[in-house]
């Protein structure tokens, strides 16, 4: 906390000190609460380019989290950063500067501070930019929570990077950058090298729709070697190659192809490379083809196929695994008339996992089918309708006979029509309905009625009236009714549902939106919700000779909730806003004690 | 109206366009060949053998937060990665604050960074595959204390459940058997999905005593 306070106080003093000097600075602060976790963050960003050839940048940030533990002391965690740099243009191509960077991290009695201070230079000549820095690095790590050897270190840091854009072909954009850095520390030295290549070239001429054939090739290579305190050495490398092309095949038709290969290697050993104790290789190949056709400037049809293969290889270890996936899909968006529009998407894909060394123990296929559609129609100048529907299916199939008993299907259907009716320039009505059903069943577990096969059904209705009393004030009143039932699915010669529980929810919502001026808005809100649940129990009636089973509906749980909230927003743009929200919630049900909760959220962002 | 761009050397615009088309055609064909060579049929899954046992992994429809803890318990002990998968929300995050702090001190800050659902599933899959393939030499048992350290906080759409756990890893080749025990408290923050089922969106792990071996340490060995 102390370090955070110091950073915060420093930032505030600098803010106050810079008033009236014409410097630009910004602050952003957030507070949030999620159950027992409270989080604060504060960012101060300060920059000055007022004097030609001279630049000053200062950034400080603090993130604090406190987790309240009822059975022990609270857990406090904090990280912060100070980043200060000065630069001066000695000539048109040379800039010299100095920097100071400090990262702080603390979690209760564990504390880590890394500081780096030094000088930098930036040289530009003939399209080449060379950046170098030399600094002193200090690492101070302490752990008072339990005995531990010293974890502090210090040394020299050196980094160099060069970037240039050679002109290889006309119209082409080529970027090359190379960088390397050395952290010469006594205990934990680190070396890094990176290379990035990018080539982009438009091909042919601009089409009437503004698109153009193009090709893009990117290659990245990174290498790192670092040592840990206990003497272990880690070498990591990464290669990433991407190629993408876009080609017009005819009027309104375009083909896009994208392919990439990623390779990562991680080796860890004790000082001598022969003493390898960890070796991990991962590779991934992704390829995607996308075809888009525009018909009569009214309908856009697109289709795609995406293929991906990934491999995690521990060189013969039993945990080696491979994943292969293929997705085929498409979509359609159509403006049928000026009053009708239609959107459809569909995709089907299978992802397979292979782990041969484990004897196919977790080998499995997961198939996903997604369908979604939306139809929007303007029924008149004041009435519109939207119809949305969809279907999702997830199927899980195990390759191991040890697990195939768990092969299952999960299907969801949904349909939602909604209407908006502008009755008067001040009065708008909204009405929407929704029905949803989810089936979950297992291939080899059909016999039992207490098995995991289930069906959930839901239907709901939402009505809202919006009354605009003035340009600045609008009242909203809404009512929601929801019916749900769920229970096991039983297989006879087809799936039959046995309702186990049904629930009915009634909810009323009243709110006001008041905009006194500009981006300022003030929104009080009140919600009342009541939910009742009934259990469906089987009762035996009649004598022993004529016993009949009747279903009885028994009230199980009653739930009430009241929520009062107040929101104040002042929004100018992304860099300038204030948001304050407070809520008081009271809820009670027959299964547990009454609960009263208060929530506060505050955010501030301002660039001066 | 077509406009051709002349090269600096003044080559024929028709030839230049033909070259560009050829380059693009070759690249597109290469991408197509890649796709077709490794084409994965999205309509078919592999054949699955009939089960050898009449009981599967234990799974309860998670209509209560407690069901998710039970499902996670059984998924770990029965090593069913798909049931473990269904306990986690899409926005899942794992955090082990003390282990992370120690990792920062050890110059390995990345060990616990960005631990999302994909990482968690890969780690679980590797643990289960390894344990299954070496079932004669290593085994694992997860135990939850039936008495939670604090009462569960369950509202209508969110829940926080704390569970004291013991994760015992047995070395079956040692004579007599030896074991390592990871002990601590797991905090499961859950939310209801659109189908009313519960899932874990945040899992925080703390060791029983500062510096002790805990679940996060165990999982990090497989990341």
Structural account:
- The complex is a heterodimer of chains A (608) and B (223).
- With 608 residues, chain A is mainly β.
- Chain A has one helix at residues 2-17, and strands at residues 24-34, 37-48, 54-67, 75-89, 94-107, 110-125, 128-143, 153-164, 173-185, 190-203, 213-227, 232-250, 253-270, 276-295, 299-313, 321-337, 340-354, 364-380, 383-398, 408-424, 427-442, 454-468, 473-491, 495-497, 501-514, 520-541, 548-573, 576-589, 592-607.
- Chain A has a 28-stranded antiparallel barrel.
- In chain A, strand 3 and strand 4 form a beta hairpin.
- Chain B has 223 residues and is α+β, with helices and mostly antiparallel strands.
- Chain B has a domain at 65-220: Nuclear Transport Factor 2, Chain: A (Roll), CATH 3.10.450.
- Chain B is 34% helix and 25% strand.
- Chain B has 6 helices and 6 strands; from the N terminus they run H-H-H-E-H-H-E-E-E-E-E-H.
- Chain B has helices at 13-37, 65-78, 81-85, 97-105, 117-133, 215-220, and strands spanning 88-95, 138-144, 153-154, 158-171, 178-192, 198-207.
- In chain B, strands 1, 2, 3, 4, 5 and 6 form a 6-stranded mixed sheet that branches.
- Chain B starts with 12 loop residues before the first helix and ends with a helix.
- Mean pLDDT of chain B is 82; it is low at 1-11.
- Classes of the chains: A mainly beta (608), B alpha+beta (223).
- The interface between A and B is large, with 102 and 83 residues.
Present the secondary structure layout.
The complex is a heterodimer of chains A (608) and B (223).
Chain A: H1 2-17, E1 24-34, E2 37-48, E3 54-67, E4 75-89, E5 94-107, E6 110-125, E7 128-143, E8 153-164, E9 173-185, E10 190-203, E11 213-227, E12 232-250, E13 253-270, E14 276-295, E15 299-313, E16 321-337, E17 340-354, E18 364-380, E19 383-398, E20 408-424, E21 427-442, E22 454-468, E23 473-491, E24 495-497, E25 501-514, E26 520-541, E27 548-573, E28 576-589, E29 592-607
Antiparallel strand pairs in A: 1-2, 1-29, 2-3, 3-4, 4-5, 5-6, 6-7, 7-8, 8-9, 9-10, 10-11, 11-12, 12-13, 13-14, 14-15, 15-16, 16-17, 17-18, 18-19, 19-20, 20-21, 21-22, 22-23, 23-24, 23-25, 25-26, 26-27, 27-28, 28-29
Chain B: H1 13-37, H2 65-78, H3 81-85, E1 88-95, H4 97-105, H5 117-133, E2 138-144, E3 153-154, E4 158-171, E5 178-192, E6 198-207, H6 215-220
Parallel strand pairs in B: 1-6
Antiparallel strand pairs in B: 2-4, 3-4, 4-5, 5-6
């Amino acid at each position: 906390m102390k370090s955070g306070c110091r950073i915060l106080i420093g930032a505030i003093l600098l803010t106050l000190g810079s008033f009236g000097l014409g410097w630009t600075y910004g602050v952003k602060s957030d507070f949030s609460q999620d159950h027992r976790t409270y989080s604060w963050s504060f960012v101060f960003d300060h920059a000055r380019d007022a004097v030609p050839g001279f630049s000053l940048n200062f950034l400080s940030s603090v993130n604090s989290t406190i987790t309240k533990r009822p059975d022990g002391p609270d857990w406090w965690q904090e990280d912060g950063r100070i980043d200060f740099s000065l630069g001066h243009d000695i000539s048109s191509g040379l800039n010299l500067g100095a920097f100071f960077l400090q990262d702080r991290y603390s979690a209760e009695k564990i504390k880590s501070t890394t500081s780096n201070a030094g000088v930098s230079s930036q040289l530009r000549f003939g399209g080449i930019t060379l950046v170098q820095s030399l600094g002193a690095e200090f690492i101070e790590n302490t752990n008072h929570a339990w005995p531990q050897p010293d974890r502090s270190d210090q040394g020299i840091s050196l980094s160099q990077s060069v970037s240039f854009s050679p002109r290889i072909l006309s119209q082409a954009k080529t970027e090359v950058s190379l960088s390397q850095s050395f952290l010469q520390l006594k205990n934990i030295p680190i070396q890094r090298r990176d290379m990035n290549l990018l080539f982009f070239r438009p091909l042919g001429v601009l089409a009437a729709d503004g698109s153009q054939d193009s090709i893009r090739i990117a290659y990245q290579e990174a290498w790192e070697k670092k040592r840990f305190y206990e003497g272990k050495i880690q070498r990591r490398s990464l290669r990433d190659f991407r190629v993408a092309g876009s080609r017009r095949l005819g009027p309104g038709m375009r083909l896009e192809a994208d392919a990439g290969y990623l390779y990562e290697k991680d080796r860890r050993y004790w000082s001598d490379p022969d003493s390898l104790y960890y070796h991990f290789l991962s590779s991934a190949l992704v390829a995607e083809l996308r075809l888009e056709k525009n018909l009569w400037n009214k309908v856009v049809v697109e289709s795609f196929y995406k293929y991906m293969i990934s491999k995690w290889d521990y060189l013969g270890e039993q945990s080696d695994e491979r994943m292969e996936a293929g997705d085929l899909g498409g979509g359609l968006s159509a403006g049928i008339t000026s009053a009708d529009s239609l959107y459809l998407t569909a995709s089907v894909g299978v992802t397979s996992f292979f782990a041969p060394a484990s004897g196919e123990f977790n080998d499995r296929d997961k198939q996903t089918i997604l369908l979604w559609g939306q139809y929007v129609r303007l029924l008149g100048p004041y009435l519109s309708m939207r119809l949305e529907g969809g279907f999702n299916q997830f199927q899980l199939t195990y390759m191991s006979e040890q697990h195939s008993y768990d092969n299952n299907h999960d299907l969801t259907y949904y349909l939602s029509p909604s209407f908006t009716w502008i009755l008067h320039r001040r009065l708008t009505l909204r009405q929407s309905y929704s029905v949803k059903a989810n089936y979950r069943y297992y291939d080899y577990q059909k016999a039992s009625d207490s098995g995991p096969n289930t069906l959930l059904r839901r239907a709901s209705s939402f009505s809202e009236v919006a009354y605009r009393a003035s340009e600045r004030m609008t009242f909203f009143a809404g009512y929601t009714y929801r019916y749900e039932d769920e229970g096991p699915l039983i297989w006879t010669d087809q799936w039959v549902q046995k309702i186990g529980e049904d629930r009915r929810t009634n909810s009323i919502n009243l709110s006001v939106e008041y905009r006194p001026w500009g981006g300022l808005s003030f929104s009080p809100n009140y919600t009342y919700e009541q939910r009742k649940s009934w259990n469906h129990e089987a009762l035996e009636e009649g004598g022993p000779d004529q016993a009949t089973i009747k279903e009885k509906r028994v009230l199980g749980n009653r739930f009430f909730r009241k929520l009062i909230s107040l929101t104040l927003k002042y929004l100018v743009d992304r860099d300038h806003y204030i948001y304050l929200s407070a809520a008081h919630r009271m809820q009670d049900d027959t299964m547990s004690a009454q609960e009263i909760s208060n929530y506060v959220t505050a955010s501030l962002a301002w660039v001066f | 109206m077509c406009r051709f761009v002349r090269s600096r050397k003044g080559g024929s615009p028709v030839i230049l366009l033909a070259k560009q088309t050829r380059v693009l055609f070759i690249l597109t064909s290469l991408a197509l060949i890649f796709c077709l060579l490794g084409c994965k049929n999205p309509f078919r899954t592999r054949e699955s053998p009939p089960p050898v046992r009449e009981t599967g992994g234990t799974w309860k429809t998670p209509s209560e937060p407690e069901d998710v803890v039970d499902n996670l318990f059984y998924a770990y002990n029965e090593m069913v990665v798909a049931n473990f998968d269904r306990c986690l929300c899409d926005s899942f995050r794992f955090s082990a604050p003390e282990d992370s702090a120690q990792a920062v001190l050890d110059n390995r800050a990345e060990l616990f960074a960005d631990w999302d659902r994909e990482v968690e599933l890969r780690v679980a899959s590797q643990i289960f595959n390894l344990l299954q393939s070496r079932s004669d030499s290593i085994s694992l048992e997860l135990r939850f204390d039936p008495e939670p350290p604090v009462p569960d906080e369950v509202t209508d759409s969110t829940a926080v459940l704390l569970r004291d756990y013991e994760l015992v890893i047995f070395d079956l080749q040692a004579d007599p058997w030896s074991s390592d025990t990871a002990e601590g408290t797991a905090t499961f923050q859950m939310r209801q999905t659109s189908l009313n089922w519960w899932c874990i969106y945040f899992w925080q792990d703390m060791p029983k005593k500062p510096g002790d071996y805990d679940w996060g340490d165990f999982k990090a060995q497989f990341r």
